[in-house]
Records
---
Amino acid sequence: MGNNDHALIRSVLAGEKEAYGLLVARHSQSVFRVAFRITESEADADEVVQETFLRGYRKLQDFDARSTFGTWIYRIAMNCALDVLNKQKHQKMVPVAEEYDCELPTVQVADRAAGPDRLLLSQEIETRRHAAMDRLTPTERIAFVMRHMEDRSTDEIAGALGIAPNSAKQAVFRAVQKLRQSLAPLWVRS
Amino acid sequence: MKHLTEEEMIGHYYSEDFCKAEAQIHLQACRQCAQAYEEFSKLLASVHAPGVPPRGSEYGAQVWRFIQGSLLPYGPKRRRRFFHWPQFGYATACLLFLAGAFWAGRFWEHAHSQPPVTSSEQQTKERVVLFVLDNHLDRSERLLVQLNHADGEGHYIDFPLQAEAQQLLSDNQLYRQSAAHANDPLLDAALDHLERVLLEVANSGNELTSTDIASIQKEMNTQGLLFQIRVLRARVSEQKPNAHAIRKGVNT
């Protein structure tokens, strides 16, 4: 597939725009997966996918033939996701409340999965995880998703985010610390 | 015993600890760290990736349809030429600029070297004038010295002195006019004073007695005139070396 990707890239650069459509078809699912894991929103993930392939096309002349298109577009997707998260960071957000508090401008989410204790615990973990993920900075969030969910190495995270490997490692560390602070009380209770 | 830090546990969990074997040995030996690590592992293991909503096989085609309108096709690669027009244009512009700068420099140098030539001509003229004037003042000074000392009784002014006064008179008229034209009031006044004395001496006839001389000395203040002439000579002598130096500077 790698070689085919390179052939398609050559065709695109030779003027055959339609060849890029084949690259999009090949890699859009994996890009969507990682975009969704980072943004946790279908709409945002779709936006990231479109922006990623648009940027990829415009930067295709800079593509290094020694690397694979999948890795290259993955890095672009990380940057697009980072932009989306940064954009959201500036917008006013209403936090999801875990308990009703009349003084805080929060929204309570109905727990439709109430049932056995185990299921309830998983549901609460998921709610708290979601809330904790929202508290992470965009860099920490991407670093954690890449490390914990996508099983990427520190060097890959650093390369995708354009930071030093040690900074990437620290971003993962801070993200885990924050998640641990949010989730630890549940484990004590259980 | 040094316990594992949280950072080391995270590194160990994600299998990135470079001292993994060492950490493993410590975890086997240290019950406290082993318990902490177990809780830590459970907690991280409970964090699952959110379920990704399924995207159909047509998803890639949909994305492509959405973005293809805003993509411009790449142009076919051009052959490398020996030179490209923009580069050639820049090179030509640089050459023209350098040539222009060179010629402008030459014209500028030429234009700025003209005035010294003119001034050198003026300096030459001035030098000649100063030389002649100095000579005239020298002669006038000597005449006045003779006149101031010719006060013995029964002495007559000899004919050569009168002849000298007549010669000096004609020259002095020219110099006085030049001084007036050159707007030099000091020189003009001194030459005017000298002219009157010379006129008196030249027109005194063959018999100029000591009484006449004393009268001239007194009435025409020849002592004062002599002082004026000496001052002027000193000034002219100062101007002469300057003019000479300027002349030498131009020549070099």
---
Amino acid sequence: MSTQGVSGLLKGMPNVVSMGLASFTASIASQGARALHVEWAPPAGGDPAALEALDSLLPRAEMIRQANDRALQMMQDAQPVLVDIRPAREVIPGMSERTILHAGPPIAWEAMCGPIRGAVAGALVYEGKAADVADAERLAGSGKIIFSPCHHHCAVGPMAGVISPSMPVFCVRNETAGNMAYATLNEGLGKVLRFGANGPEVIARLKWMAGVLAPSLAKALKIAGGINIKNLIAQALLMGDECHNRNVAGTGLFLRAITPHLLAADVEKETTAEIFRFIAGNDHFFLNLAMPACKAAADTVKGLRGSTIMCAMARNGVEIGIRVAGLGDRWFTAPAGEPRGLYFPGFTAEDGCRDLGDSTITETAAIGAMAMAAAPAIVKFVGGAPSDAARYTLEMYEIAWGSHRDYQLPALDFRGTPAGVDIRKVVETGITPVINTGVAHQRPGIGQIGAGLLRASMNCFREALLVFAEHYGA
Amino acid sequence: MLLNIVIRNRYVDSVMLMSIAAEAKARGGVEEVSAMMGTDANKELLASSGLLAEEGRAAGPMDLVIAVRAAGEDAASGAAAALRDFLSRRPEAQPGGAGPAPRSLSGALQSMPDANLLFVSLPGAYARREAEAALGRGLHVMIFSDNVPIEDEIALKRKARGLGLIVMGPDCGTAIIGGVALGFANAVNRGPVGIVGASGTGIQEVSCIVSNAGMGITHAIGLGGRDLSEEVGGISMLQGIEALDADPETRLIVLVSKPPAQSVAAAVLDRAKNCSKPVVINFLKGDPAEAAKRGIPFSATLEDAALMAIELAGGPKRPAPVDSPALHAVAEEERRRLPAGRRFIRGLFSGGTLADEALIVLRAYIGECRSNTPLAPELKLSDPRRSDGNCILDLGDDEFTRGRPHPMIDFALRCERIVREAEDPGTGVVLLDVVLGYGAHLDPAGELVPAIRKARDSARGGIAFVASITGTDADPQNRARQQAALERAGVRVMETNACAARLAGLIASKGTH
């Protein structure tokens, strides 16, 4: 702010931001002054309703600024610590024996995409509620099962995001605010439940995870007294992960953190070896820790009056939905997008399900695609160069409220990751968040067929902004 | 004194911590500073160098330990606080400015957090929104755009005033801030003269005359054409005077504008009167009596204002207002070549204020001229596309620029009109302004000369061309080079616009003056 009045402008050369004719910017720069040209386009693409909404919020800018500053503060102050691993039914709020949780905004069984249907069927078989997949599908459609989004239960799930009552879940506590977040343990790649696969080997793996992996890790955790996931994320970012589509470093860091405690725990040596093999063989094991850590941070701002910060973004394979801190529990949805990316042999983009999963909680909480500059290896999914990785991140600053104090990007001179997506900036600039994602086959039971990149849909941001303006606008 | 501070659960890379600790130590006043994650190995290291206290000993491997040893408590806690500051310091943008161009003001401010001026040359309909946002972020604003509703101008200027900021414009073509030309402005010397002006070409003419006389400009603050209207109330003019009055480099102030609205004139003149430094006023077409009442020097033309400023700044004294024998001789020479019927002046201007100044100057030589922007309504040309008698045209006026670039950038209309005027057997003198500087065409003479040659041919040589150049040798176009090119084409190039008008007047008035 100008503390010197107009005289402040007359001290030395001006530092100029210029929008309009580029030749003027060049003239100013040619005289040795600093001049930055804005690639300006009509705000909100000239959409009159959106512009009106933005304008109606201008007189509220100060209130919003305070709310957003507070939101960013709470999100970066969160200290998510993995404290336990327990069956979902014991810890997840509102989880009944008939409940199945799924990714994304709410959706009825009939409308669900293939991978979620496949995962639901697999989960019912796994729970012993159905004899086989066909039986499970009948049960799912019978009305006896309650379907609910993970996000409504302090939980998040990658891809199909299916959580059934007896599945073990990571319990992450935000030690700053005391709130909890939950996610299942990562099964690995390929034919796995979260990509809609539900064959016998999938069920068998889930049984092993519930019977062997989870209780053993829980014993180790007890000895460890909890593991701070945020710190692992901060380190992983320095090691080439963005903690959404690349979790190699995070998985290694977790393994390093749990190893002494697992060895000290009352677990058979053979079992311990089996667990090491499982985690070491799954580069994405850490994803299911990063996600609840992000959820624990993002949930702190849900319902924060006056804040335009996005506090959830999730897809169910049919729709993408976002929530905005200042608008509480309400979802704003639009049709889910189609990722561009690389496919496993024998598959093409045609086979892919639309965008799916709660893993965009990472982008919501300042990692994932926001931190792409940390993970140049990721851009090979879209045939890009390492410089493209930095470019994605740099573009995201344009729609972020600030930068994260603790999540730093070495490639950008340790600048903090873009943190807190401001829906006003999204609508105004026309830039929507970039999403890193896996791709599931659109038919149930097949599994993952690739991974790639896409943009969140503008329409949910636009709708959210209109409602926000209705709520708070002048 | 040994001080340990533990920041729980804060992971920072060790190399980063070492460099920050070194920086904190370099501030001086302490014996040793260290910052480390509280791993057992690190704690051992701290202990062995006598830097581990009770608090640090209790830290875990994910906690950050700051350790300081200093002579006194203040020094220790000061160093610890500095280290925490360094820790929270983050670069706001990528060094070197690589990466995608910003797409919004807030995006730009992330890359340039110390920006203090937004320059807007967008379509007018979008100017308010961006300007408002900039004011909200503490930036001054210059709005080059026209077609901004006056209500928006009022709202913006009031808001700016409340925030201690200034809005130059809308429709502000010219400003020079801290030696940097913004919009259409010239590369002038730095010097003691400050300008506040509601007219872009007015500012250009005054600043160039001052600069070409070897003096210079501190700042030229633009206002936009409506600032001194009753509705806007001269908000930016008053702020501009205030700022230049307070500016230690500025020794005198020149105000350049059309006459303010009655209600505004008093406020502006009173403020000018209370200035701690001399003020020169040029309200083109204005009433000198109002200024005289307050003892403020009033100049009738831009040239006069500039010369007055030069004199006040310690330069040469203003010449007496009598045309020199040399000018008479030049006029005589040109006049001899004109056939009997060719006696009218046709002024083809790109700068509106320069056209106004010519109208005022010519009054003394040939009486009133017709114009599309006349001094009195009854002198308005019925069809600006057809000249009638003595005419001065502002080709930069809206009726000519709709749907085409400004004549300072695009010479097509002016060249076409030059040829057409020569075909009129009544045309004796074609009077031109040539405006150089940033934003203007890079070679105006190159555009004009072919049209002038063609015109001269069609008039069989029986036509005079008189021009002034508003510009300096430091301008991208180089004034001397432009002048030489025009003179090779037989154009009489004068030092100032007023002088060119006088020469044209002398030629056309057949020596009766």
